[in-house]
Design a protein that fits this description.
alpha+beta, 5-stranded antiparallel beta sheet
């Protein structure tokens, strides 16, 4: 809230003339009362106090608490149902009950914090409303000194300018991102990103800022609720094991993980390089260490199969994701899942560093299938993901906002650079982002935090 006051005061003056020989003397008399400058100063001070009291950060606290509470309650319901189905009164049941107990404690703490925050906001609302009413009365009183009605005309000018700007925006408005035909996967176009729905540190705390997490987009029977986590534990670039959890609550609490090691040393042949990877069909797909190849790690047999990208494909930070002043280390290859399978997104010198999309057939060994070339330069992008055969690319706007600005439809080959879909960030950088076609969520790894966002379709 801010107050800006411009008052042009016309002071009625009375002129009298008296003659003293050849001299002429004029007496000036003000027929209006003196302008109450003290009242104006008081209004300005109150406005500044309101600005300091009501900030955007404070107003988002309530949204975050409500979203977190909703997520915790939903997860609690899922865990109770799971316990009822599988409880055998042994160790599993004791662990599950402990998890549920911890979740209930967290929910109670969130409720207490929500109640305190709500009460504070109610008090703040009442106080601010009274201040606004007082300022309104004083401003109306001060406007009586505006004999030329400058303030009134300024209000009219502002209204006309606002209408004109709205008109310009409507003229400049562009069509939305491509609408996916229902025959392809039954979804309309992406119109918004809501959240975060989940926001938590991993069990490692802030030790590892680069990593990835999510769910298997095509899980084996019985693994539908499992979550996987990979942290790049060497130089924020390399990893050699995958950690799995049975539920969302256990990954948040760090309870009962199972580790699968690609190799005992890190880094070495066929271990993980860079934070971009996906899980599909019980296999992890990622950039093989120090090569321009795709690695497929089978979670059951712990065997690795590879397929090479074109020989001029970037790796070892030749074509990483980046924005002005910052480069995301070893992100030359990005992997994405959608309703039809796995893709690898990369760049080549023959395509001038622009993004290329290749479909990865998930056979053993994997095979590169159909490929599409775009005009999107990879170093102008911070991340990509696929939805229904459409590639979306994001870019860094500021510390609080990422923007989905680009799309490429692999069926129509339509390319768009004018999308303006904002993602509200909780940390400065997003190192990993992928779409899960099973729940329509974006899974994000952001400066050691794991988050989910919900995609909204038309």
């Amino acid at each position: 809230m801010s107050q800006s006051v411009i008052l042009l005061i016309l002071i009625p003056l009375t002129f009298t003339q008296s003659a003293r020989g050849k001299d002429c003397v004029c007496d000036l008399k003000n027929s209006d009362p003196a302008f109450p400058k003290i009242k104006l100063t008081k209004v300005e001070t109150t406005a500044l106090q309101c600005i300091g009291t009501i900030t955007s950060e404070k107003m988002t606290d309530l949204d975050r608490l409500v979203l977190g509470l909703q997520q915790r309650i939903n997860q609690l319901e899922d865990n109770v149902i799971l316990l009822e189905k599988e409880d055998n009164s042994n160790l599993y049941g004791a662990v599950s009950l402990r998890i549920i107990e911890l979740e209930i404690i967290e929910i109670q703490e969130l409720l207490g914090k929500l109640n305190r925050t709500t009460n504070n906001y109610q008090h703040l609302s009442v106080q601010t409303a009274a201040q606004l009413e007082d300022m309104k009365d004083v401003m109306e009183e001060l406007e009586e000194f505006d004999s030329m009605q400058v303030v009134k005309k300024d209000r009219e000018n502002q209204r006309v300018k606002r209408d004109l700007d709205q008109c310009k925006d409507e003229l400049k408005a562009t069509a939305g991102p491509p609408t996916v035909p229902p025959a392809r996967c039954g979804l309309g176009r992406v119109v918004n990103v809501v959240g975060p729905r989940t926001y938590s540190l991993t069990v490692y705390g802030t030790s590892y800022t680069f990593g990835a997490w999510g769910r298997d987009a095509n899980p084996a029977p019985g693994d539908e609720n499992k979550y996987w986590l990979v942290v790049l534990s060497s130089s924020n670039v390399y990893g050699n094991f995958i950690r799995q959890y049975n539920t969302l609550s256990t990954i948040i609490l760090g309870i009962g993980p199972t580790d699968k090691y690609i190799s005992n040393t890190n880094p070495t042949t066929n271990t993980i390089q860079g934070p971009n990877m996906v899980m599909y069909g019980n296999a992890l797909y990622y950039n093989c260490y120090n090569t321009y190849s795709v690695c497929q790690f089978n979670m059951t047999t712990r065997s690795v199969s590879t397929v090479a990208l074109p020989s001029d494909a970037g790796y070892n930070n030749k074509f990483p994701f980046a924005h002005l002043g910052y480069t995301y280390s070893s992100t030359d290859m990005d992997f994405a899942t959608d309703e039809s399978g796995v893709y690898v997104i990369y760049a080549t010198t023959s395509n001038f560093g622009n993004v290329i999309i290749s479909k990865v057939e998930t056979s053993n060994p994997p095979v590169l299938n159909q490929t599409w070339s775009t005009s999107l330069h990879k170093r102008t992008v911070t991340n990509t993901f696929m939805v229904c055969g459409v590639l979306y690319a994001t870019r860094y706007l500021d510390k609080e906002t990422e923007e989905i600005f680009y799309s490429y439809d692999t069926q129509t080959k339509e390319e768009r650079f004018d999308l303006k879909i904002k993602i509200k960030k909780m940390q400065t950088n997003i190192e990993f982002l992928n779409y899960d076609p099973r729940d329509h969520l974006l899974y994000v790894y952001s400066d050691a935090y794991i988050l989910t966002y919900e995609l909204i379709f038309q």
